[in-house]
């Protein structure tokens, strides 16, 4: 059921009218590419012999004739690009704009299909300036005898820099196609964008705008027929999809074209940033009522920036990095439409972070604005350069080199220093004066002295998949939370932290290992596989292809590549990303499942993130239920951290019993503790649980009289509150203790118990 079969595609024809390699069609040039190396480098990377180059007089478009592999697409299945638009750039500009636009994405139940196009016809009028139209066709043969015919047309308009795309999907089979979802596939290979769509307030504004270096790209959903797409398509029925692809050098030109196509009345707005010469800043325009983003762009300097907006009330924000300046604006025909934001004056703060002996601590510094001063927004990874996601809010920096100097706008701040859950924190209220430098030293105490355990986070992401931090920033964030071991688990990609760890000089604080989070496109399940051998010659660096019929096949593929690796089932109750949710595992007793239940994984992630809610509570219940049925999976906790602000690494974490010092630690030591369950999961507190004076979590003991003697101790740093301790026996909460200890004391609970077992 789960395998994504290849599509049987009938090549519907050949290019009928291309009798020569170059045509000039009413001002639009259509050229077959014979040698891609003769193209500019910004086109030659993706082009293949036989592809087509379309010149509308101002913009160039690359159209693929045959399929190919795409380096940045790591999911399976994926469109092969045949018949798709792969690039759109201004003529005679050395700009890069790779994309995939036009293939139909078909989802039937859990199965995805991307039928490959064949070009069947070109047509144009003899009238000067008339558009060029390309017609394409593909057939779909699904896994369960679903059949469909797909017809798509691309209309290029002279000197417009835009393509009108119309696609029809007709059920040509004998049976209805159920659980159907259709869309036109679009991949900008870029994350930085905005989308003003709002289901209630702005359903007509269904478009996205991407900013890349030197240009802006628009993808507009012009609607479908019928307007409400059916989930079941009867034999003979047809669905029509309509989209628009645009490329422009300036945002005002792009927005004007989009709003004109949507017949939306807008007004010209001018935004001026003052006192910001030579610096890169970000402009964000957010509708006050809905918090919908109507514009965002990275800009340099203090120039005037012109855009178009519908009438309304907006929050205009300039991120001057680190200053944040906002004002509410009204856009109306009767108001002044020129708005100015000025970068405020600043000062500098030099910071040292040490322990009680004066030793350097590579911790975290968080800054919060007070008394009208806004919290800073420190520069994120620039998404125009990385093409990846970015930190929308970043008020923390890492003290990995000291003294650490940061710029802050003049004002009053609470500055807080931390170094993970075993240490105290310290905060100071500081006044930053214009043009002045101030010095501050923070001294943290180790509140909980936990020995014989290694703090591990086995689930972490970077911009190599859907994270917001580069590898160096990710490493700094891990070290700053006093983690001693970390496993890189980007989606379908093997990331190696080691080179950057050594370059930063932080390898004495942290051991790192490479893995992957295996993630099929349909999100039927997510699981980690680690450690994984790095294969730099492969585009996934050693990650498996996520094609499968049964879940067991994915597990087997991982173990075939890395026989001694572990399989960790992730967030099993995270909605449609949770395996136990998708297979319908009984929530009360794990008595049954309606889907493909496969239990040959090694570890179960019972805490994903810091909160006990959001599915983690049910995951703990599942773990206990499975344990009662004789299935023992050592429990792990992890952060699943994608960024740093609000999703810090190490919350949760797993403390693995290991007596070795960090410099002598190897993977086999950690693996042994993980597989035996000689560990405990925590989002901050430390739990010591000893049975009959010597047995700890993961140990096996034989009981003869049905009674055990246990000692439970709970410790935490002063800033971590403990309110309750629960004893769970055979999946049932048997004993609960309220905790009333002083917050400043690390020992929050210490009790000896005699427990009768059933």
Largest sheet: 8 strands, antiparallel
Residue stretches low in confidence (pLDDT < 50, at least 5 long) are 1-26
Name given to the CATH architecture of the largest domain? Distorted Sandwich
Mean pLDDT, to the nearest integer, reads 92
CATH class of the largest domain: Mainly Beta
The name of the CATH topology of the largest domain is: Beta-galactosidase, Chain A, domain 5
**Tally of structural domains:** 5
Topology:
Blueprint: E1 22-25, E2 28-32, H1 41-44, E3 52-55, E4 59-63, E5 85-90, E6 98-108, E7 111-113, E8 118-124, E9 132-141, E10 147-156, E11 162-171, E12 180-187, E13 193-194, E14 207-212, E15 215-225, E16 238-248, H2 251-261, E17 267-274, E18 280-287, E19 293-300, E20 304-309, E21 312-319, E22 324-331, E23 338-342, E24 346-355, E25 364-370, H3 383-386, E26 396-398, E27 404-409, E28 411-418, E29 426-432, E30 437-444, E31 453-460, H4 471-480, E32 485-488, H5 498-504, E33 511-514, E34 516-518, E35 527-530, H6 551-561, E36 566-569, H7 579-582, E37 603-608, H8 616-628, E38 635-638, E39 653-657, H9 667-676, E40 679-682, E41 686-691, E42 707-715, E43 724-729, E44 732-738, E45 747-756
Parallel strand pairs: 17-23, 24-30, 31-32, 32-33, 36-37, 37-38
Antiparallel strand pairs: 1-2, 2-3, 3-4, 4-5, 5-6, 6-7, 6-12, 8-9, 9-10, 10-11, 11-16, 13-14, 14-15, 15-16, 17-20, 18-19, 18-21, 21-22, 24-27, 25-26, 25-28, 28-29, 31-39, 34-35, 35-36, 39-40, 41-42, 42-45, 43-44
